Each structure stands twice: as C-alpha cells, then as structure tokens.
C-alpha cells in the first residue's frame, strides 16, 4: 500500500466512502465532517487519484473494488456501510458482488449499472479520444465543470481543482477504459443489501433512466432525487445529501 492515502477518522460503526473519476478522498470532506461524530469514516483515494496520485493506477472496476476491500481488510473491518459516487458507484456495486455479506447498507450515488452510459454529455470513446488528442490538462479543465449546475463558479468547485492537480493522462485513460468495459446490470438482482440510490435531476453524466434501472432491479432499494443539483450534489447541496444519508443509515 505504498503511496496510498486512506483517511480514517471517528469511531464506531465503519462507513466506507469511495470517490469517482477525477476524484479524491478530500471531495468527501463535507460528508466526513458531518458523519465523523457518528461513524468511523474510512475514505481511500484510489490509486493514481487525488492524494494517492503517486501510486500506479488500475484499469478495471473489479481491480478497484478489490483495492477498496484490501483497505477494509487492512483496517480489520468486518461489517460496514458503503457509499460510492459516480465511478465509485460502479466500484461499490462490484464490492457488493464480491463481498455483499460484509455490507450492511449500500448507497449508490450519481451512478449507473453500466459504464458506457447512453445520453452522457459525451460518449466514453469521445472522452478517450479527446484525452489522447488534447491531453490531460484540457480534460481536467473541461469535464469537472459539467458536474455542477454553476460549473466552475460553484463555491465548492475548489475540491475538484484540488483533486485533479496531479492526475496523469495514464490514470485518466485507465479509468475511462475501466468504466467503458464495465457492466454490472446482471448482478443488480443479486444485491440483497438495503440500498439507497441518490441522483441530482440536473446530472448530465448519468440520466434518470440509469438510476431508475438501479431502483427497479435492486430488490430492496429506494431512489431519492435531489432537485436543482447536478452530478456533484454532495458538494452543491451537502446538508440535504447528508441528512438523506443519515436518515437512511439510522432507520
């Protein structure tokens, strides 16, 4: 686990946070602050991303899921609540496939059961092509603003700016290929955990059809739609998101 950053704070029942594409552990700051008095928060930065930018990146969702499980095992945690945002939502679905019995409650936030999302602001192939042709700096400045209704003018946009600072072209490319190749649809019916699905109604990365597919096919699931928010609703409306998650975990 050289060059891997894992934030571990608070005490009590474990709550694992998995960030998304171009993300970092820090992007969960407004959730960590809220939940650290109630849970033990464990929030890794995925290899190649954010605070773990020096670690070699992974090129499959399955490998990313195994990485998170290794972190959990190293922390000697047996049971936990689990949340994943965007690409992290794919990772937590994969964790549910591998080790669903260890998850108590599952939260799939702004995500889908497939990586190649119809209706995304651009196809994965287009993102991959543009990354190759235009380079990492252009991708860093172009994609994160799409995740906020106010674009890079959002008061919490700086979390995205911090997260992308040291991301390499290889890391971004590996993650785009990992998402494009991943398909978790067939496993949805096997997810037995009580599941909360959260989505902002202005999200241009994942559309309503994608989250309704999760809700329809995961047996014990509920969908909460956050009005007026885009893909990074946890940074746009943190209080609202935190209260929804808190209520779900407390019931």
Describe the structure.
The chain has 251 residues and is α/β, with parallel strands linked by helices. It has ten helices and seven strands. The protein has helices spanning 29-35, 61-74, 87-99, 124-134, 136-142, 158-164, 169-181, 208-217, 233-236, 238-250; strands spanning 6-9, 14-18, 40-44, 80-85, 103-109, 194-200, 221-226. Strand 6 (194-200), helix 8 and strand 7 (221-226) form a beta-alpha-beta unit. Helix 4 runs antiparallel to helix 7. The chain starts with 5 loop residues before the first strand and ends with a helix.
Radius of gyration: 16 Å
Report the portion of residues in β strands.
15-25%
The count of strands amounts to: 7
Helix proportion of residues, in percent? 25-40%
Output mean pLDDT.
Answer: 97
Q: How would a textbook summarize the main sheet?
A: 7 strands, mixed
Question: What is the distance, rounded to the nearest whole angstrom, between the alpha carbons of the first and last residues?
Answer: 35 Å
Identify the strand order in the major beta sheet.
1-3-2-4-5-6-7
Approximate shape: globular
Which structural class best describes the helix and strand composition? Answer: alpha/beta
The DSSP helix count reads: 10
Low-confidence stretches are none
Order of helices and strands: EEHEHEHEHHHHEHEHH
